[in-house]
Model the fold of this input.
Amino acid sequence: MPQSVRVTTSRGPVLGTWQDTTARFLGITYAQPPVGALRFAAPVPPEPWTEPLDATRYGPTAQRRPFTLDGPTTIPEPSIPGDGVLNLNVFTPDPTPGTGLPVLVWIHGGGYVAGSAASPWYDGAAFARDGIVLVSLGYRLGIQGFLHLDDAPDNRGVLDWIAALTWVRDNIDAFGGDPGKVTVAGQSAGGGAAQTLMATPSAHGLFRAAISQSGAVRAPQHRRDALADSTRLTERTGVPASAAALRDLTDTELLALQDASTKPGAGLTLAPFADGELIPAPVPDAFADGTAAPVPLLLGFTQREFYPPPGTTPTPVRAGVVAAMLASHGLSPEALAAYAALSARVDPEYRLGQALTDAIFRGPSLALAESRAHHELPTWLYHFTWGSAAHCVEIPFTFDLLNAERVTAATGPQPPQSLADAMHGAWVSFIRDLDPGPQWPRYTNKRRTTMTWDAVPEALDDPLSAERRVWTMP
Done:
């Protein structure tokens, strides 16, 4: 039977459990439930409590409708009902104040409209085993988190991330963590969250390093684009884009509005945007002009993020469809011509999937790495090429959780433990030492070293030179 373990936070005591060598505290409230007048408000700290909070099971999730498992991700992401979705989980090997362990704060993906911190793929046992405290958090999604409303603060989901990081700063010592040794990290939308927080001045100082795995940010992400989304919702549904009009709708009604107002093929729309205040400028601009936080950054992507799932029959698309999608992500005519030459070696039925991979993940990450190299900031770039190399498949390797639920559905049978050992070890070294180790040199504008994660990992100099030139053309 698991043993109980108690920790006292700034708001009150919490009661978790020991499982093997990890103390788990699940569903800890970091802000009041976003309901009623708080549904579209900035997060508000919870009221203090005196009786121990039951932290033995995952708390409610903002996700009410997950991605289907036969879609672009096979991550098991449970939806848990309840109002108190602004909660987090702590996994620690030593919940003793003053222990001073480094901390990893994990932000889940899901396109900013789905995802769950309760996924078994985000279990922190392996990090705790290696002396890292892991915190995973929930945040408001979709309309509640990111739609511009005239009578509510913008980027409410970003405010949730900052509130959770503030909780970590104020409380993680009680769980054995060092608030001065926090790395913020995530995959897909969570990787985009790490990038966004680096471009958000009010978040600076809450973390000392960042990890962006297949980071995805909205493009374009100017305020005018967010205003256009709000206008489209009203035009298509007749419902005003205001907190007053949306506050009392059910979750099902909000999801129906979300579906009706989403522009097909527009990519990430309900996502963080440059509102001019909380987020002063688009993420790529902040990295290019050096205003993003100059902390060490580890980032990368998989080789085939959005290829059709294995076992499906892909549908060929016209070259014009691919070109239009790439142009919407900012490629110049010259870059489009260069990209067309590159994609000629990809089978026609896979060209759209590869173009999505490049437009959303590889291209922007290569451009960020170039911006960081220009400013001579500590940066490490990776390219995951093992197996299917599909979206999300690297997560169980970095978390060293190859035995977790549905992992082999994503990886195929017998994923190599040696690759998990190498990747997880590099992540631990980066979180602990701000450097993944001598086997993985920094990305600089002289060598552009990129760690290629395959059955035999190898650090290669500029292996994506052709792709890099496309995405950094003026």
Q: What stands out?
A: The mean pLDDT is 94. The radius of gyration is 21 Å. The longest helix spans residues 351-374. Residues 3-315+366-451 form a domain with the Rossmann fold fold (CATH 3.40.50.1820).
